[in-house]
Design goal:
By secondary structure, the protein is α+β, with helices and mostly antiparallel strands. Helices cover about 20% and strands about 30% of the residues. Strand 9 and strand 10 form a beta hairpin. The mean pLDDT is about 90.
Length: about 280
């Protein structure tokens, strides 16, 4: 395959042309895709037509599948690796995760080994009067780190934050088994990307509930200030979805949120896979 990588012009993100993910991807092409993924944080492919097994196989090229907790409730029949993200209901029951990711976050940051990345394949996109709804915003936590004054960087480097699965108000209340599976953990506030060596801020409002060595109110204020800094417009790319988009983001250097500006009868249907990661350093 002959591919072209086109940056979005924002602080992160690139579109990749010339790849048909319904066909096998040779090693040379995959290496170029993976480099773009590491360098840009967000990459996407338009006009794809992939089956669930093909999405799972492509995800596995980036690492072992991480089985998300939502997959136990909403997965694709025959492909338990895929979580259905949708506002659609059938017989009065949701077919997928209804309001996932409304607040800025990094996926499964509360885990001891947060996932490397997440992939979304868009099957149905909501529209109203010809306007596309349901965008997703992505923020570069690496660009946010680079923009901090050096004295602030020195103050933060080496500190660890506490992440608590029960800290966030979730669309669906967690079960006791889920709570037991994810006890509170600590991660570096300043993470180093395992492939590029680039530093980034790893702080999220809600999921991040404290900072070791800093008192409660002072820690809360610092978490809030850093969380707001990460999502400044200068560091954000907003993706306007099209049916057939396959998009993936890096969970170390990128945070994201889903724009919930639609409701039935506007339908949104996505297939989500998650790839396993490493212990943050």
């Amino acid at each position: 395959m002959s591919i072209e990588i086109v940056p979005t012009g924002a602080a992160l993100g690139a579109e990749i042309h010339g790849v048909n993910l319904a066909e096998p991807v040779d090693d040379e092409t995959f290496d170029a895709i993976e480099r773009a993924y590491n360098d840009h944080g967000v990459i996407f492919f338009r006009d794809q037509h992939v089956t669930p097994p093909q999405q799972v196989a492509f995800t596995r090229r980036f690492g072992e599948i991480e089985f998300n907790i939502f997959g136990e409730r909403w997965s694709v029949p025959g492909s338990p690796e895929i979580v259905v993200v949708s506002n659609v209901t059938e017989d009065g029951s949701p077919i997928g995760v209804r309001r996932a990711g409304e607040n800025w976050h990094s996926d499964m940051c509360y885990a001891s080994r947060p996932p490397r990345g997440t992939m979304l394949y868009a099957l149905e996109i909501p529209e109203l009067f010809g306007l596309t709804l349901g965008d997703t915003e992505f923020a570069s936590a690496a660009a946010a780190w680079d923009a901090l004054p050096q004295r602030v960087q020195r103050h933060l480097d080496g500190r660890r934050a506490v992440f608590d699965f029960t800290g966030r108000t979730r669309a669906f209340p967690p079960t006791q088994a889920e709570i037991d599976r994810y006890p509170p953990v600590t991660h570096p506030i300043v993470r180093t990307h395992p492939d590029t060596g680039r530093k980034c801020l790893y702080v999220m409002r809600d999921d991040c509930t404290g900072i070791e060595g800093i008192g409660g109110q002072e820690a809360e204020a610092l978490i809030a200030a850093l969380a707001d800094h990460i999502v400044k417009p200068a560091f954000v790319y907003r993706h306007q979805w099209r049916a057939g988009d396959l998009l993936m983001w890096d969970n170390c250097t990128v945070q994201h949120r889903a724009i919930q500006d639609y409701d039935l009868p506007q339908r949104r249907l996505m297939h989500r896979t998650t790839m396993g990661g490493v212990v943050p350093t």
